[in-house]
Design brief:
seven-stranded mixed sheet; single chain; 39% helix; 379 residues
Length: 379
């Protein structure tokens, strides 16, 4: 089976985990803080305002909770997005309001976001589809002008940038995902950043039970009766740990090589699929934009047939992400013609550094064969 995603871990990651085990401290500790500092430096944000968590989803929930949203508030997000974003909005009591996307890039434009803004809008959540930054600069300017918070869902875009500025550094808040299917992996894990120091401190507190001070030996050296909890608000346990952070530190060092190989896979797909009638390839990044190359997506009339044909030939594909405006829980409905057109024609092909050139050629040949047999047609 040629898999859609495949984490790239090996001896370096195993050695890093072994060091943690040998140190006999597996939980939140020095490696967690080291990853926060190293990742913040990589993105170009304040490490004091950057928190390593057990998932990117936790980052979405905490970021939106830190905005004190509630009933009557609205949060705008693209309908082509992961359910975690809409769930995080719903958990605050606010209402998700969906916007359309460009049918080719699958990213919302600033105009798409602007049409969805209203008097009750308190925040905007923007996903960088497939690792392409999209109009994030323009959307950030729009949100600033309208006085609404911008949360960047940078789950797909750990290495993406616009004119040298990293995705995740444009918004008031940002989160990244490091789960086993992402570009940079820690097994499970994620990062959240808040531009405002007070909001970042609150997120860190909420991520660890709402405690004013973390428990443990470090706190004991500076307090009397350190075992007595000081709980300032209701929190959870969303923090990362030194086992996953150790993997993350290695992955962050290896990120340039991982992105290089992803770019090579994309270039090979482009060459192998160029000129196939009835098949639209993904757009190249805009000038000045760098992509993380998380998805490679094609668009064709018989998308479902192509997916089944590839699966029958041991190639796993999918479409990410199904339109959220069709989910009843979120208040199903609305008119999103571009998103629906994209959702009916788009298929994500395997893309990860573990693919060999022969793997890519095999996938491309199968796609060409399917279309040549008359199953493709115009989009």
């Amino acid at each position: 089976m040629i898999h859609l995603f495949q984490p790239q871990v090996g001896d370096e990651e195993i050695a890093a985990v072994r060091e943690v085990v040998d140190d006999r401290w597996l939980g939140l500790g020095p490696r967690t803080r080291a990853l926060e500092a190293a990742f913040a430096e990589y993105v170009g944000v304040d490490p004091a305002n950057t928190v390593f968590l057990n998932s990117g989803t936790a980052g979405l929930f905490l970021a939106l909770e830190s905005l004190d949203l509630g009933p009557g508030d609205e949060v705008v997000l693209p309908t082509l997005s992961f359910v975690a974003a809409a769930n995080a909005v719903m958990a605050t009591g606010a209402r998700p309001v969906f916007c359309d996307v460009d049918p080719y890039t699958l990213n919302p434009t600033a105009a798409d976001v602007g049409k969805a803004l209203g008097e009750a809008t308190r925040a905007v959540v923007v996903l960088h589809y497939g690792g392409h930054p999209g109009e994030i600069r323009e959307i950030a300017d729009l949100c600033r002008d309208r006085g609404v918070a911008l949360l960047e869902d940078a789950a797909c875009s750990v290495a993406s940038s616009v004119d040298g500025r990293r995705a995740g550094s444009f918004g008031d808040l940002a989160m990244w995902s490091f789960d086993a299917m992402k570009v940079m992996v820690t097994g499970d894990g994620g990062m959240v950043h808040a531009r405002d120091p007070d909001r970042a401190a609150r997120i860190r507190r909420l991520a660890y039970h709402g405690l004013a001070h973390p428990s443990g030996l470090g706190h004991a050296r500076h307090a009397d009766r350190w075992w007595e909890p000081q709980v300032e608000e209701v929190g959870r346990r969303y923090v990362g740990n030194d086992l996953t952070a150790a993997i993350g530190l290695v992955q962050l060092r290896r990120l340039p090589e991982l992105i290089r190989r992803r770019a090579e896979v994309v270039a090979l797909y482009d060459r192998e699929l160029a000129g196939v009638e009835g098949l639209r390839l993904p757009p190249a990044p805009e000038p000045g934009h760098e992509s993380s190359h998380y998805f490679y997506w094609v668009q064709t009339r018989n998308r479902d047939g192509l997916a089944k044909y590839l699966l029958e030939n041991d190639v796993y594909t999918t479409f990410r992400y199904a339109p959220l405006h069709g989910v009843e829980l979120y208040g199903a409905g609305g008119d999103f013609p571009a998103a629906e057109r994209a959702a009916a024609s788009t298929l994500c092909l395997p893309l990860h550094p573990g693919l060999s050139d022969d793997d890519v050629r095999t996938v491309a040949r199968l796609v060409r064969d399917f279309v040549a047999a008359g199953h493709g047609g115009s989009r």
